[in-house]
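Q: For a teaching handout, I want to show students what a protein-ligand complex looks like in token form. Below are the inputs, and the small molecule is citrulline. Please produce the holo structure.
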Amino acid sequence: MRIAITRAVSPSIERCQLTHLAREAIDLGVARAQHRAYEDRLVELGCQILRLPVEPDLPDSVFVEDTAIVLDEVAVITRPGAASRRPETVSVAHALAAYRELCHIEPPGTVDGGDILRVGRMLFAGLSSRSNEAGLEQLRTHASRFGYTLKPVDVRGCLHLKSAVTQVAEDTLLIHRDWVDGAAFDDMELIDVDPSEPFGANALLVGDAVIYPRAYSRTRERLEGREITVKAVRMSELAKAEGGVTCCSLIVQL
Ligand code: CIR
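A: Here is the structure, written as tokens, with citrulline included.
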């Protein structure tokens, strides 16, 4: 049994944080329809959706991934690197308290969940413009109690570690090597994104399938060529807010 925590797109998403993209108009109606279709894919993959109340004054609040790291034993509530995003954690912590013991990243630490790639008991942790050494050290302390090992990884040219690399099968990662050094993942199989699709490394593995943006058809062919089942979604509007498929949910395994 899996719960997927989500939150509908905020009406203020036009004021979202942007780091590597120029601001473009976001069609709120289309963004919401795409987000609902994404939730439908999660349901098809066996998730029960727990949708948090919309946050009209928190532009980036649809990107719930950044607010927590949900491990099997504990949920670590983050302190997001962008100050405007810190109030998003309150309602997420409230929801997660029903399922996990909680602990918290404290100042001066910052961590965005998008920087934490969990593979089994390994936490690859992006050192990015959002997640700092103090934050990753606190996460290491919380997670090591339960036998997790944390490995810091430098990220360059993109927002989060999971913009550059995500898990697509038990022993396989999808990677864009311009943004992260593949040597950090030397005991895993690596699939490179198609060079024409630099934003194509963000896939969401749920069970045996990945939710993946329809826009990256060449990389999708590479995934399917490796026998990976792909559930395609349209993410054009949330991509303008620098969001991908991992960012829009927190999966809680029960
Ligand atoms: C931000 O800059 O924080 C948002 N506009 C996008 C966050 C995307 N989150 C993610 O990839 N985990």
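A: Two things your students might notice: The two ends are 5 Å apart (CA to CA). The pocket of citrulline is lined by residues 16-17, 19, 60, 63, 65-66, 82, 85, 114, 159-160, 241-244, 246-247 (CB under 6 Å).
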